[in-house]
Every structure is written in C-alpha cells, then in structure tokens.
Amino acid sequence: MAMLSDITLTPFSNSLNVAIHLMTKAKAHFESQNRNTNDIVDLQLVDNMLPLSFQINAICQHTLQATKAVLSSNFYIPSPLGEIDFHGLIKLLQNTQKELSEITENEVNSRSGETVIFHYPERPMTFTAENFITSFSTPNLYFHQTTLYNLLRKEGVPLSKIDFIGALSLSPSE
Predict the structure, then answer these.
(1) Distance of CA 158 to the CA centre of its chain
(2) Long-range contacts for 117-125 (Cβ within 8 Å, ≥24 apart)?
(3) What number of H helices and E strands is found in the chain?
C-alpha cells in the first residue's frame, strides 16, 4: 500500500527537478542564440493564457505548498509572484526543492486520512489528504509542468519526452 509520502515527496521532488532541468536547458539554448532569457518570463502559448512565470509559481504551489497543506490542513490560492526575472524563476524552483527536501516522510505520513481544506473564495472544498493530492494538486502540477514544457518547445528549446519525465522510480533490484 502506498504511503502518503509516496504520492507527495518523491514525485513532487522529481517534478521540481524536471522544471529546474527544463529551465536550465532553456537558459543554455537562449544564451547560445544570444537571446535574453528574460524575454520569455512573460511568454504565453495564447493571449488569454497565463505566462511562463505563472507556470513556475504553480509548479511550486502544487509541490511544496500542497505538501504543506497536507501538514496544516489548509490550502490557499497562491499570491502572484510580482516582478521576477528568469534567474529568479530558477532560484524559486531551487528554493522550493530545498524546502520540500526538509519535510520528512513521517511528518507527511502522520497526516494520512486527515482533512485538507482548499480555501477557494466562492466555495471552500474539503478533501482527505490523499484525495487533495491525487485529485487536485497532482493533476494541476502536471498541467502546469506540461505548459512550461510546451512554452519552451514553442521557443525552440531542444527538449525530449525524457526531459519531461525525469527520474524513474525503479524497483530496488534495477
């Protein structure tokens, strides 16, 4: 039986590593083309879609902040990032990864079956910790990570499927 930490800490850490990797590849790509990396901070796939900086913020929210919500029982809509440059986005991901790594499996697992309330303004939503992670944060995380990947691909960053997938969780015998 999977533990709550199995559906949070490991896959969320992997997603953060993937986002850091994608942004690092983007940095190298744009620098090789003498293109300013800050030019893509506000990049959108379409006019009515939120920009790359929002996608990074959402990745941080649906990894670290989702895990913290499991611990505290409360999740809130994130505040906008405000002015941030490309380097700041990478730093945000790295800091999020560092803070996530400081949360222990025991802390997360002790909250199994507990309530998490998403304080959505129109209607608060109540979940179990597991349902919050599996039906809300994980799908949101993958949506925003996919959008980040697509934004970078659209700009010519040479990415592959394995860049998106990241580290695989193989059995110990592998």
Answers:
(1) 21
(2) 117/73, 117/74, 117/75, 118/69, 118/75, 118/76, 119/74, 119/75, 119/76, 119/77, 120/77, 121/77
(3) 8, 3
Report how far residue 24's alpha carbon sits from residue 27's, in angstroms, rounded to the nearest whole number: 5
Residue 125 CB neighbours (<10 A): 14
Question: pTM of this prediction?
Answer: 0.94
How many C-beta atoms lie closer than 10 Å to residue 149's C-beta?
19
Q: Where are the domains of the chain?
A: 4-165
Q: Which CATH number fits domain 4-165: 1.20.120.450, 1.50.10.20, 1.10.443.10, 1.20.82.10?
A: 1.20.120.450
CA–CA gap between residue 51 and residue 14 (Å, rounded): 22
For residue range 102-155, list pLDDT tens digits in order: 999 999 999 999 999 999 988 999 999 999 999 999 999 999 999 999 999 999
Closest CA to 138 of 74, 72, 79, 61: 61
Q: Residue 162 is encoded by which pair of tokens?
A: 């394995």
